[in-house]
Design a protein that fits this description.
By secondary structure, the protein is an all-beta fold. It has strands at residues 4-7, 10-13, 18-24, 32-39, 46-51, 58-60, 68-73, 78-83, 92-100, 116-117, 121-126. The protein is built from no helices and 11 strands. Strands 2, 4, 5, 6, 9, 10 and 11 form a 7-stranded mixed β-sheet that branches. The protein is globular, with a radius of gyration of 13 Å. The relative contact order is 0.33. The model has no long low-confidence stretch (mean pLDDT 95).
């Protein structure tokens, strides 16, 4: 089991930016497909972004395309979610997820395949 710890959330105004970080306990994330999900109060958990183990393939929720960018730093065993032009509807708890795969091009845009989850970090965007 890989332990994931998110950070970087906070309270910002509409139009601001935040960068979320997800630090992993594993010595390397090179065999893990990674994802970001979010959950607003009273809502189901929602896919936000995903990345293949080699970083070559990514996927994004339509409403965040062009505003959010997922990246990974293998040397730091950390993945990031850069969020620009934030909107009030982006308000949610954001969760990092990871799952091991032997296919460097695998990524998953649903929660089911992910075996490891962080505790979440709250993002609140005021209008």
């Amino acid at each position: 089991q890989v332990q994931l710890v998110e950070s970087g959330g906070g309270l910002v105004q509409a139009g601001d930016s935040l960068r979320l970080s997800c630090a992993a306990s594993e010595r390397t994330l090179s065999m893990y497909a990674m994802g970001w999900f979010r959950q607003a109060p009273g809502e189901e958990r929602e896919f936000v972004a995903a990345m293949s183990p080699n970083g070559g393939r990514t996927a994004y929720l339509d409403s965040v395309k062009g505003r959010f960018t997922m990246s990974r730093d293998s040397a730091k065993n950390t993945v990031y979610l850069q969020m620009n032009s934030l909107k009030p509807e982006d308000t949610a708890a954001y969760y990092c997820a990871a799952t091991m795969t032997y296919d460097d091009d695998d990524y998953y845009d649903t929660a089911g395949p992910y075996k490891n989850w962080g505790q979440g970090t709250q993002v609140t965007v005021s209008s």
